[in-house]
Specification:
Length: 266
């Protein structure tokens, strides 16, 4: 049995969006102050393995959906010494436009996806705009093509992808969203992705309004805490506080990338 490795883990901020708090919480008060979202992809690397988690969206989608693009995710990865064209493993937490765009920038990668996410994105729920609006049909169709090329690795529930890194079906936000548990020098941390967009969604039990199942989303908050060695080490998918609570990943990366395998500030 292989020894568990320690991973260095990074959040790469590639876009941002100004929003009202009422946009980010079910039942949110429209008079609450602003609650912007940041958009991230994540990198986990050990001495022997490199995993990219999600691939972001491309500039055309950003313009059409009114998001402020900061840089292409592959450029952010390159600044951390990772060539997207050489990456072998990409974890797609779910197939929403801001998590699976740009997958073509990873021509050598296998894409790790939950069975239930492909079922959701290609099934009956997509006949309803309330579910389909967060998907880009060409990206979903493109991922189906990758299935036929043998490049998609499907998972049903939880799976260890390497010693020290595993995926876990959470559900709620979409039918098949998965989060990533990573072993680091401080212990097990969890990259929640959109299982909790903001710290407050999970910590205050105030669910995000883009949701397949509110019950599964709330239960997912409990599961995220279980998976991490410390609840503070659950990293949300879109919270600007991530950039404040964690240290800059290196010179010239201010506002772009932070290191997640360290104790966060309170």
């Amino acid at each position: 049995m292989s020894a568990i490795e320690e991973y260095q883990v990074y959040a790469i901020r590639y876009a941002t969006l100004a929003r009202k708090a009422s946009d980010n919480f079910i039942g949110g008060d429209p008079h609450e102050e602003g609650s912007p979202l940041d958009y991230f992809v994540w990198l986990a690397r050990s001495p022997s393995r490199t995993f990219v988690i999600d691939t972001g969206f491309e500039r055309g989608v950003a313009e059409r959906r009114g998001r402020k693009m900061l840089l292409s995710p592959d450029i952010g990865l390159k600044r951390l010494g990772v060539d997207a064209a050489e990456v072998r493993d990409v974890i797609i937490t779910h197939l929403h436009y801001d998590h699976v765009g740009n997958f073509a920038l990873f021509p050598k990668a296998r894409f790790h996806l939950q069975d239930r996410e492909m079922q959701f994105a290609t099934g009956r729920h997509m006949t309803q705009a309330i579910f389909s609006h967060a998907y880009e049909v060409e990206e979903v169709v493109g991922m189906v093509r990758e299935v036929y090329k043998g490049r998609v690795v499907f998972h049903d529930g939880e799976a260890e992808l390497a010693p020290g890194l595993s995926v876990h079906h959470i559900g709620g936000h979409t039918m098949g969203i998965q989060s990533v548990r990573v072993h680091t020098r401080i212990g097990w941390i969890v990259l929640a992705s959109d299982a909790t967009h903001l710290y407050a969604n999970m910590n205050d039990t105030r669910p995000f309004p883009i949701v397949h199942s509110v019950g599964a989303m709330v239960e997912g908050y409990r599961r995220l805490r279980e998976l991490a060695d410390d609840p503070r080490w659950v990293v949300p998918g879109h919270d600007p506080l991530v950039m404040q609570r964690y240290p800059v990943a290196g010179p010239g990366l201010e506002g772009i990338a932070v290191r997640l395998d360290v104790e966060p500030k309170q």
